[in-house]
Amino acid sequence: MKTLLLTLIGALLCHADVKLPALISDHMLVQRDAPVRIFGLASPGEAVSVAFRGQTAQTTADPLGRWETWLSPMKPAAPAEMTIRGNNSLTIADVLVGDVWVGSGQSNMQWEVRQTNNAEQEIAGAASNEIRLFFVPRKPANVPVLDIEAKWVVCTPETVRNFSAVMYYFGRQLHQDLKVPMGLIHSSWGGTPIAAWLSGPALSGNARLLPFNTFWADVIAKFPENQSRHEQALKKWEDSGKTGPRPAAPMGPGNPHEPSTLYNGMLAPLTKYTIKGALWYQGETEAGRGQGHLYGEAMMTLVQDWRRAFGQGDFPFFWVQLANFGNASKNGHWMKVQEGQMKALALRGTGMAVINDIGEDKDIHPKNKQDVAKRLALAARHVAYGENGFVWSSPLYRQATREGSAMRVWFQHAGDGLKTRGGGPAKGFMIAGADGVYVPADARIDGATVVVSSPQVPDPRAVRYAWENNPADANLVNSAGLPASLFRSDDRDEVIVR
Asked: Tens digit of pLDDT for each residue in 72-117?
């Protein structure tokens, strides 16, 4: 806190005039139908006014030079100038009103438009003055920072090429569906864990997430030894003429995997900006580290943490469930992350895109980000925008009940009835008795339920669906063709599959 205070005071000494954060700049997009906060720095006690589209809001900088004021809710209209006056006068050009979405996570959120299917065609048709992009630089921080070095840009083939594909395709879909301008704020970092995106108080305040801090404490304890080994390996690599890949540096102080550092450096600077909602695509790291059992709690904590930080109530929050991936770890944590992501839907105002049908067996980065975004947009249209009359979610497990020698599985979001992708019998189900031995099961669709049985299990106790890293044969979908999420009706970690 002392470091942050000194930084603030230093900034004020250097900038006696009104100073604006990167988010308040040319080509910005501000949130429609909600009070909009405009904020910045000035001299202590300096009077500041903000004028935009016929409104004028006034305030006075506090003793630390911080100021903020609010504009009344607005509807989308033609771009306009915003004028901010204090001792100086600043003009913000080409300001739009629409919906602002923040997107975050690891590499699948970072994955760029140029890396997706039909990339060049998508890029060539990307020009839209009503879609605005804001890219948050990748920079960890030990304490929450106030600002970043970035700017808003209009969506063009040049600016969208290296932008988040999921964010862009999501924003484009909503723009097409709603005819409303979209502002997309992208803040992600490939390979990073969820703990890095949680605030310090949220992480330390949840005892169930202690293993994340314990994991990092172990990294720090082993860093001197690991760094010494790295230096030896690096010297050997250099002496050999730099043949082969350069030895990777070990994790240690300042690494973006350190808990809370990406929240501090890449999320905290955004929290004063008025938004519509958030997107999240992450979890591969926890699966690889054997932390899948922690993910549901971590996901719910993250949603609640970010909602608290933005101070805008329970704003809509959507995420992507991990895709099918044949090379995932064999310890079950890939599925446990997926399960945790489904359990986090218990929070109000949330939704999830299930994509266990469009992953790639040997690539952790599926190139079909268009369908990922479409499924997120479906959830947003219902949850965030209140639209009805269509199926907006994949089938989700509700409960399993015993019926003689079979188990009946009940699903939410079946639409007009469950069916299979491509026709034919339902596959991907397994059933077990009291011994916990699972066998492939016969499955018969009955409306919004599936009846599962096997002659090998006359006394069934539990059922699972798509409980594999790459459930290639799992084919259950709803009437809209959206794939069912994996589930397990038991909680056994050690199971036998026969």
From this structure: 999 999 999 999 999 999 999 999 999 999 999 999 999 999 999 9
Angle at CA 395, nearest 5°, toward 392 and 401? 145
The model's pLDDT over 342-368, given as tens digits with 9 standing for 90+, comes to 999 999 999 999 999 999 999 999 999
- Read off the CATH number of the domain in which 344 is found: 3.40.50.1110
Cβ neighbourhood burial of 360 (10 Å; 0-12, 13-18, 19+): middle
Statement to judge: residues 145 and 114 lie in one domain: yes
**Identity of the amino acid at 220:** I
Amino acid letter at 248? A
User: Quick check: is 489 in a domain?
Assistant: yes
Sheet with 442-446: list strands edge to edge: 396-403, 406-412, 449-453, 442-446
> In terms of residue numbers, what domain contains 316?
96-393
466: three-class secondary structure by DSSP = coil
Number of domains in the chain: 2
Last residue of a domain, one of 325, 358, 393: 393
- Tokens at 244, concatenated: 């082969």
What is d(CA 470, CA 474) in angstroms, rounded to the nearest whole number? 9
**What letter does residue 11 receive in the DSSP assignment?**
H
Tokens describing residue 222: 């082993």
Point out the domain boundary residue: 393, 422, 449: 393
Tell me whether residue 216 is in a domain.
Answer: yes
Question: What residues in the chain have per-residue pLDDT under 70?
Answer: 1-15, 329-330, 494-496
Rounded CA gap, 457 and 475, in Å?
22
According to the model, what pLDDT value does residue 5 have? 45
Tell me the two tokens of residue 167.
Answer: 């964010």
- Alpha helix positions (H), 280-437: 284-288, 295-310, 333-343, 369-383
Predicted local distance difference test score (pLDDT) of residue 376: 98
